[in-house]
Amino acid sequence: MLSAEIARAFEAACRAELSALKPGNVHIFAAGHGMEVAQFEHAAAAAAPAVAEADLNVGARIEAAVQASLAVAGCNTNLGIILLCVPLAAAAEQGPGDLQARLRAVLDSLDVADAQGAFRAIVAANPGGLGAVPDADVRASPTITLKAAMAMAAGRDSISRQYVTGFEDIFSLGVPALGERPLARERVEAAYLAFLATFPDSHLARKFGTAAAEAVQAEAQTVRAQVEGLKGQQRHDRLLAFDGRLKARGLNPGTTADLTVASIFASLLARPQQAD
Q1: Is the pLDDT reported for residue 79 higher than 50?
Q2: What does pTM read for this prediction?
Q3: At 154, which CATH number?
C-alpha cells in the first residue's frame, strides 16, 4: 500500500472508534476524563503522516507520531494506538498477501534503535499508571530489541502482548468482531465489548489494580449479553448507562479502545477499499 492510503486508513480507524459508543472512553456521545473528541481527532490527523512514513523505522515513527499528537492535543490521547498501528502500517507497505504474516516479519526485524524511539515516545506521553520496573524500564536507554522489551511486559500489558503473539488478539477477536463493515458504529461497539469482556483492561489494572479491571470485565460480560440482538435506542441506552457508571467511578478502559482502533486499522489494511 502507498503511504497516503495507509495514512487515510489510520485516520478512518480513529474516527470510527470515536463515532462508536465505547463505555468508559471518549466518544461523540459523551466526553470524559477531562478530554474531548476534538483532541483525539486532531491527534489522529497529526499522527497519520508519521504512522505511514515509510522512510522511518518503527521506533522513529512511533516517536514522531506521539510527538505530533502531543503538540496538537496537549496530552496523551493515542500512545497505545500508535504503538499498535505503526507495525501494522510497516507490514502493509510490503505489498499484498497475508497481513499478519508480514506483520510477524516486521516484529521479528525490530532492533535496539526501534526500542530507543519507542521508549522515548512512552516517556513523553507519560501514560497513566506508568511505574518503574527492574528490567527494560522505559526511562533507561534500552539495550535489547523492542520485541524483547515488549516480551518482558507481555504478562501485564495487552499492547505488549500483541508484539510477542503477532497481534493474535487483534486478528482472532477484534477483526472477526468487525466483520464486513469495520467502520460501522455497531460493529465497532461489538469489537470493543468483545475485548472488554474477554480481557481485564491493562490500563485499568495499572491505575486501579487487577481487581478493579476484573470487575469491569465482569460488568462488560453482562452488558454484552444484554445488548446482544438489541437495536436502536434500547441498545444505545444500555451502552450509555454503562458508560455513565464507568465514568462516574473515573474508570477509563483505554487499552480496550486502543485494541479496537488497531483492529479497525488492520481490517482496513487487509481490504483498503473499505477506508474510502
Answers
A1: yes
A2: 0.94
A3: 1.10.4200.10
